[in-house]
Amino acid sequence: MTEIPAKPVLLTGASGALGRQLARKLGAAGWTLVLTDIVPFPDPVPAGSRFVRADLNDGPTVLRLAEGCGMILHFGGVSTEQPFEAILGPNIRGLFHIYEAARREKARVLFASSNHSIGFHERETKLDDDCQFMPDGYYGLSKAYGELMGRMYWFKHGVENVNVRIGSSFPEPAEARMLATWLSYDDLVRLCVRATLAPKVGSCVIWGASNNSRTFWGHDSREALDWLPEDSADGHAGRVGNITSGDPVIERYQGGGYTAIDYSRAEAPPAPLFGKK
């Protein structure tokens, strides 16, 4: 990681698990970061960077934070399934503030989308990046909305954006589904580096997963970024390959446990009649 962006990088959600990884590793590489979150930053702030506690609902503050930045790594907002009202502010209105800041600064955006934007596709269906949105809850719905907002800002205003449908980014896979969805921290960092430094990205989608042979996902725009994952969940198959939920809804769909939250159908729905197979 030798290249350093010419302009500072705004990192939202800096106090979260993924934000802290990015702050530590990008800061150690000499990047100038503007870190922000609604909660305090629990680690030492990297040299040459700063942390500002802020709410994504506060549009003027988001605009000030983005001043002079050439890239926004947007990992802020509600990161789990929650009631609609809890998600509405940070994930919908907050994202609007991010894109308005990017438009003004002529900055690029990496949007931390999610596999939960397509979570009700069945596990046997191999998906490309142009598949039908099938969100598995209000959180996934907000991520589908976020990707659509990025497309609109690209076509209407020329704001470049990389939409990363993150699978399961943890230190190690913890159960069988993660053998398909796991994204190592190092692969995530390398992806953010390439999304920042690539000459052009337009508005594109990347499946946020490591080089897992059991993956649910196929084609995306990684070649445009010159990013290839280097890690793999495969070596963990013997340890976690038999760990499943036992719930037929969870085990049917790519979104896993989120699909069963508040699930009230009396019987399983038929296979979807639309979208790519």
Brief overview:
The chain is 33% helix and 13% strand. The chain contains 9 helices and 7 strands; from the N terminus they run βαββαβαβαβααβααα.
What would your notes on this structure say?
This protein is α/β, with parallel strands linked by helices. The protein has a single domain, classed as Rossmann fold, CATH 3.40.50. 33% of the residues lie in helices and 13% in strands. Helix 1 crosses helix 6, helix 2 crosses helix 3 and helix 3 packs parallel to helix 4. It is globular. The mean pLDDT is 96.
Q: What's the rounded overall pLDDT mean?
A: 96
- Return the CATH architecture: 3-Layer(aba) Sandwich
Q: Could you name the CATH topology?
A: Rossmann fold
CATH class call: Alpha Beta
- Our count of domains comes out at 1
Find the CATH superfamily.
NAD(P)-binding Rossmann-like Domain
Report Rg.
18 Å
Report strand order across the widest sheet: 3-2-1-4-5-6-7
Question: H/E order of the elements?
Answer: EHEEHEHEHEHHEHHH
By DSSP (H or I, 4+ residues per run), the number of helices equals: 9
Shape assignment: globular
Major sheet characteristics:
7 strands, parallel
Relative strand content: 5-15%
Distance between the termini: 38 Å
The total beta strand count reads 7
Instruction: Briefly note the structural class of the backbone.
Output: alpha/beta
Helix percent band: 25-40%
User: Which parts are unreliable, with pLDDT below 50 for 5 consecutive residues or more?
Assistant: none
